[in-house]
Amino acid sequence: MRATLVVLAEAADLTASPWRFQAHPEVWVLVAFVVGSWFYALRAIGPHTPEVRAGAPIITRRQAWLFVGAVAMLWLASDWPIHDISEEYLYSVHMFQHMALSYFLPPLVLLATPVWLFRAIIGAQRAGRVIRWFAKPVIAGVLFNLVVMITHIPDLVNRSVSNGPLHYSLHVMLFVSSLLMWIPIVAPDHSMRIGYGGRMVYLFLMSVVPTVPAAWLTFAEGAVYKHYDIAIRVWGLSVTTDQQIAGAIMKTGGSIFLWSIIVFLWFKRFMAGYG
């Protein structure tokens, strides 16, 4: 009887559309909490901070739009259909999701955060000192790359995609380590940023380590992650092609994004020298 139920369940999975809508109320609650906390901070905390009392705006129009972009990025990367396709069918979409959580979302969050709010979080308390220590360039860079390597271990990936709490825990770990990695680049408090030259070297180094799992995915023969070796092939992509696209996203996409910022910083430094 039990074997029959298993067969029926597998048959149902094969006939179900990969694009069927799947609700994720936990994501909606998270997005609502982020938006609610943001407005609470603007109304209840901002007006009483030294920076605002001295004449600084509670929030600029640019920061408001960046916050909208950050919330949209969080929702896009965490909800249907990206979450479901990445978890059940395509590792390349899973890689795009990781790119969004590590390369796109963290700088948006930091750039959208007013300096008074950032300083309120990174205060003089013990927790603030711990965050400042982990946000030091060498420590943040090593931690970020360590998390990147860990989150590509085959056994861990295979377990996480079928274990909700583990999956979300890995995403939180990836986002937090990425946030720390981006602080030396775009921290709202400029005293925590490193110089232009240091930022360019730092970003280049951040683009190097991910080439290891990217090359592994690109040149591997057969399925690296058994969870994605299934009969249903979205867009007709074979498991090998899916892995190769994932490797290209990680290496080429990530490198182009980081190197574009390096070029921007170089021109900004160059123009500042002639200002």
What does this structure look like?
The protein is mainly α and 275 residues long. The chain has one domain. Helices cover 73% and strands 0% of the residues. The protein has 14 helices and no strands. Helix 13 runs antiparallel to helix 14. The longest helix has 35 residues.
- In DSSP terms (H or I, runs of 4 or more residues), the helix count works out at 14
Class computed from helices, strands and strand pairing: mainly alpha
- Outline, from the CA principal axes? globular
Strand count: 0
Biggest beta-sheet profile? none
Low-confidence stretches: 1-12
Q: Please state the CA-atom Rg, rounded to the nearest Å.
A: 21 Å
Residue-averaged pLDDT: 90
Proportion of helical residues = over 70%
- Give the helices and strands as they follow along the chain: HHHHHHHHHHHHHH
List keywords for this structure.
single chain, 275 residues, disordered N terminus, mainly alpha
Lay out the secondary structure.
Layout: H1 2-15, H2 25-45, H3 50-53, H4 61-78, H5 82-88, H6 91-112, H7 115-121, H8 126-134, H9 137-150, H10 154-160, H11 164-186, H12 196-206, H13 211-219, H14 239-273
Helix pairs in contact: 2-4, 4-6, 5-6, 6-11, 6-14, 9-11, 12-14, 13-14
In short:
This protein has helices at 2-15, 25-45, 50-53, 61-78, 82-88, 91-112, 115-121, 126-134, 137-150, 154-160, 164-186, 196-206, 211-219, 239-273. It is mainly alpha-helical and 275 residues long.
